Amino acid sequence: MTIPKLVLSSPADILAAVPYLVGFHPTDSLVVAGVAGPQVRLTTRWDLPVASEDLDLLVALLRREAVTEVFVVGYGAGALVTPAADTVTRLLRAGGIRVAESLRAEGGRYWSYSCDSATCCPAEGTPYDTERSHVAAEAVMHGLVALPDRGSLRRSVQRCGGAAMRQATSRVMADLRAMPEPGGPVADELAARFVAEGLARVRRAVGLYDSGGRLDDEGAARLGLDLAVVRVRDEAWALIDDRDAHVALWRDLTRRLEPGHVAPAASLLAAAAWHRGECALAGMALERALAADPGYSMAILLRQALAHMMSPAMLRDRMPTPAELDDEMGPARAIWLAPLRALLTRDVPGPASASVPGGRQIRSPS
Predict the structure, then answer these.
(1) Percentages (nearest 5) of helix, strand, coil residues in the chain
(2) Which of 274, 224, 269, 228 is nearest to 246 (CA)?
(3) Measured between alpha carbons, how far is 112 from 121 in angstroms, rounded to an integer?
């Protein structure tokens, strides 16, 4: 993630920036931020305690991202942080990557592992206040957000749809069930029309959220069903860039869609968050996707990428453009609508069955 115009010139500045880099204020965590020139290229976070094998892929990741130096920050008691900070520092130095600063923070004070002078780094720690930092003010000005804790980030992807959304979904599904059954000479023509309209709705939705707007319930329900068609979903995936609109759109649909419809939108949220370096958000979105559909291939692919600490660029650079998708997939065919028709055979869950089953635990550098 690139943080524009933030100057990190002291340990207090680093501690003020980290919550905006990971999206929330960490506790009992180890954070490594990799820098290339003036930019923070990536930020990884682990719950403490962390197994040493979970850190083994870190150096390779930093090299792929052309990182030249890192900041290491541990949050929590010394007995919890120090072993992890020592391990990651040893790995980084062995890999030829400079550790610019290594800190432990607890109770509004920090200690530097890089400094052994009692004059500037007293044994009782140095007080700091992230709320009053100019770094925090500049981060907010640039639109960055730091939620109070990891639980707040998780709640930001949990379902919030209610009766109105269920009713809108029922209406949209009833309309779509009126589509002619596949077969006959016009089946592919009808599929082509549906796909073209779905692609247009994806683009309009991105533009709407880019301008600060929001889909109404029927629009959200319809787009959620459009995404059951892989060509439409892949259009949304191919369009993902650094704009906030992609995270805003797919987070909104992840929260509002019925559980059985949410896997594509949640997977797109994961892709958009990962694109921006927000691995914690990406991991939580994948939990939602896989809770809804444990076999959903896009979510499984992204989960593997996160678990193996792949760079987002490695997959992004392989993503086809919309025009290339047209060339690769060819004209729309009736069979493309089979996943949608499968959804339409299901009833919309009522209030008593609307909760999402427990998601799988995902180990990722979040």
Answers:
(1) 55, 10, 35
(2) 269
(3) 7
Distance CA 21, CA 153 (A): 13
Confidence check: pLDDT of 327 > 70: yes
Contacts of 252 (CB under 8 A, 6+ apart): 209, 214, 215, 220
Gyration radius (Cα) of the chain, Å: 23
- Tell me the CA distances in angstroms from 20 to 108, 228, 282, one per residue in order: 17, 33, 15
Residue that has been written with the tokens 């403490």 in this structure: 48
| Closest among 209, 217, 309 to 268, alpha carbons compared | 209
Mean local confidence (pLDDT), 238-263: 95
Which of 51, 57, 50, 116 lies closest to 92, judged by CA? 57
Structure token pair of residue 35: 């820098």
Span 264-300, pLDDT tens digits: 999 999 999 988 878 889 999 999 999 999 999 999 9
In this prediction, residue 77 carries a pLDDT of: 96
Tell me the mean pLDDT in the region 207-227. 97
Retrieve residue 76's tokens: 């929590």
List the alpha helices (DSSP H) in the chain: 11-22, 58-64, 78-94, 134-141, 150-155, 163-177, 187-210, 217-226, 230-239, 244-256, 263-275, 279-292, 297-307, 312-316, 322-329, 338-344
Residue 132 above 90 pLDDT?
Answer: no
Task: For residue 11, give the 3-state DSSP assignment.
Answer: helix
Is the dihedral angle over the CA atoms 163, 164, 165, 167 positive or is it negative?
A: positive
